[in-house]
Amino acid sequence: MTTHLKGQKMYLAGEWVNSEKVIEVRDPQDNRIIDTVPAAAAEDMLKCVEEAKEGAKIAAAMPVHQRMAVINAAADYIEKNSERYARTLASESSKTIREAGKEVGRAIQTLRISAEEARRINGETISFDQSPGSENRVGYFYRFPIGIIGAITPFNDPLNLVAHKVGPAIASGNAIIVKPATVTPLSALLLAEAFAHAELPMKVLSVITGHGSEIGDALVTHPAVRMISFTGGVEAAEEIARKAGLKKLGMELGSNSPVIVLSDADLEDAIESSVSGAFWAAGQNCLGVQRIYIQEGVFEAFKEKFVGRATDYLVGDKQSELTDMGPLITEKEAIRVEKLVNEAVKKGAKILTGGERDGAFYSPTVLIDVPENCTIAREEIFGPVVLLYPVADLEEAIHLSNNVNYGLQAGIFTKNIDLAHKAIAKLDVGGIMVNDSSDFRIDAMPFGGVKQSGLGREGIKFSIQEMTEPKVVCFKLSN
């Protein structure tokens, strides 16, 4: 029996267009083809940039109330079609239907916050008379859009992370070109569908599907593209930075997130939060809990209960409401995780549960006694694997937490406010969640990290700051 595929079109400057070549989009659960999308060529991207030049002028001229209305209308459209969006997201990605439903809800919220923040792009008056000789000058600064933004998005949040770039870009009066992950392009095209339905002016938004090797350079290196907003891995980020030239870079990269559990913590809360943080989206989450440092007095109790919860985690059909965790995005990724775990075991680590692969599925895995020289201890796993370590005290936990070249977010569980503040001051990260795992985030907060975890901050208000520039206005008054 042959399955008829609809075949999606890409969204080039407001037009739905095909290409001669296509990319097969597969469900990672069983590797079946669920649809196809155009495989754009460099020429398509160059044409898109040329159209976006006009789109940037159109976007900048849109009054704030129009930007708000369009963004809210797009959010309304997604809300009305939320089940279709969630089913599509769950089909093309690693997320279960429950996880996909939550992501769709977050994308709606991301757009609504973007609409609200559009009204708050404000400047300030400047006291020019603070400088001797400038007593007869008054003025202010305001923020203006930078023009064309190139957005490169990952597979792990294929709708909300696109919304996190598109919403602020439109709110701040920019044109934006999105290059979604090759393996999960359908959700990004659904976002474009919502904006088309909301009557966003032509040429302001494009979603161009294709292989990064074919179209990436045309977007990244083009002098008319004034900012690259990238979410992905460190190696790709370094290559983009080398090629981009003199333009803004916003980069949300990887992590190796630590969680600290002190002896006075609510263990049930710490375990529940950390299990979810470790295995959400099959561990393919930049905020995912990777290392847990537990004070020695409660280590054994924590370990036993944590392993029990991980063992009970239901892995299976993504479209079932009962499933806790689905597959990794490809079998290749599952094999990569398997190799990392096997390397750690060869060097002395012990598997308490998990460590088994079936195609693209990899079971929730808990390790102890992991040596520091293992790759899995120092780099981002991006899979359903968590490492447990006993520590003597908070000082040791902080030292070990900081002993990697990442710093996105961290979590600490304690009832002692003094110890919490000590961790806040000394942990070298972009965000600290107290009595929550490193995985907690709301879409309005500033989001980003230090070291190899990124450059700049996302979160709608903070993305808008990155996507605009201040312009100073000064009036010299007559005596």
UniProtKB/TrEMBL annotation:
Note whether Oxidoreductase occurs among the keywords.
Answer: yes
SUPFAM superfamilies in the record: ALDH-like
Q: Which CDD domains match?
A: ALDH_y4uC
InterPro entries, per database record: Ald_DH/histidinol_DH (IPR016161), Ald_DH_C (IPR016163), Ald_DH_N (IPR016162), Aldehyde_DH_dom (IPR015590), ALDH-related_metabolic_enz (IPR051020)
Every Aldehyde dehydrogenase domain range: 16-473
Q: Which residues form a coiled coil?
A: none
Task: Tell me the keywords, alphabetical order.
Answer: Oxidoreductase
UniProt lists the family membership as follows: Belongs to the aldehyde dehydrogenase family.
Instruction: Provide the protein name.
Output: Aldehyde dehydrogenase
Q: Which organism is it from?
A: Planococcus salinarum
Taxonomic lineage is: Bacteria, Bacillati, Bacillota, Bacilli, Bacillales
